[in-house]
């Protein structure tokens, strides 16, 4: 069986999360999420950013405090598979906010649908979601 990669390298290999990875790089989080864990990352796929004008994304990248709040709202300490999520109503993010979990007709995190679940990593799990989560 192949050895699992960490959260960052797995996300890079998937190729579905370039804007999220760029934000993590700007915030200096790449090493942390390569080494520490376990974490569950609700990772917006690239198409989740399509409705947002490029200049708004660029402004977000320049405001590190705002960007940090957004990124940290997508990350939870611990490893939660979809099987675990089905039995939960909320999860606390690393920013201290709560995410609402609903498990009817698939699993939703706040208003975002998990569109690719249980991407296993050496230090956690990634769930690809179809929207950006906003605290």
From TrEMBL:
Organism name? Methanolobus halotolerans
Specify the superkingdom: Archaea
InterPro entries according to UniProt? Adhesion/Biosynth-related, FAS1_dom_sf, FAS1_domain
Task: Give the matching Pfam families.
Answer: Fasciclin (PF02469)
Where would you find the membrane-spanning parts of this chain?
A: none
Q: What is this protein called?
A: Fasciclin
| Record domain FAS1: where | 1-133
